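Researcher: Please translate sequence to structure tokens.
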Amino acid sequence: MGVTLFSAAIGDDRKVIEDIYGDSFLNISDLRTMPQKLAALLLRYIR
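Model: Translation complete:
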């Protein structure tokens, strides 16, 4: 339907959320890396 879901996690549940969302998961345990990781994730889907 043209909708892509992304999921981000900071806490202890990161592994569970990553297992559910796979490639659409964004691990932001280090908030300083979030802008780069988010941009890279978005680029994968718009190219």
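Researcher: Any highlights?
Model: The radius of gyration is 11 Å.
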